[in-house]
Amino acid sequence: MNQLLKLLEASGKWPQRPSFYVTTLPQLAEKLENFGPTYVIGECNRLHPLGTVSVFFKAFKMVVAERPDVVVTTGSLPLAMVCLSAKLLGARVVWIDSIANVDKFSMSGSLVRHFADLFLTQWPELAKKYRNAEYVGTLL
Predict the structure, then answer these.
(1) How many helices (H) does the chain have, and how many strands (E)?
(2) Contact status, residue 19 vs residue 68, Cβ threshold 8 Å
(3) What is the pLDDT of residues 73-108, one digit of tens each?
(4) Which of 21, 68, 86, 122 has a CB 3.0–4.6 Å from the CB of 38, allowing a cystine?
(5) Which range marks the domain in which residue 112 is found?
(6) Own/partner pairs, 129-136, CB within 8 angstroms, 24+ separation
(7) CATH, residue 11
(8) Angle at which helices 49-66 and 77-88 pack, to 10 degrees?
(9) What's the number of domains the chain is made of?
(10) What SS3 state is found at 54?
């Protein structure tokens, strides 16, 4: 969340401010609502497949309603589902893998990297190690 808030602080430099926001936790939604409409799609992981299916349907429903042109995310499995849904509907995807991933990409990042229009890592060594990944600096 800190990485996303840093991106939002820099949004004065963005050509267009994001039109809506997505989070996995209600308590984080309170901060994001200061920036604009916010959706809470819930948390999930690969160890709880039924929860993952539920989150996917929430993500897909939200993407169909909003029809984003571009999705920018700092990642997680629920947001990977948002990216996949948006990509299926023609949106561009920008994934910023977590700074915590020093040796390899996150599992969600590893999936999204194959269809993301721009995949950013916060470690130059990872950009050199993997195709379709770029390093342009860190967020934190």
Answers:
(1) 6, 6
(2) yes
(3) 988 899 999 999 999 999 999 999 887 778 888 899
(4) 21
(5) 2-135
(6) 130/105, 133/97, 133/105
(7) 3.40.50.2000
(8) 40
(9) 1
(10) helix
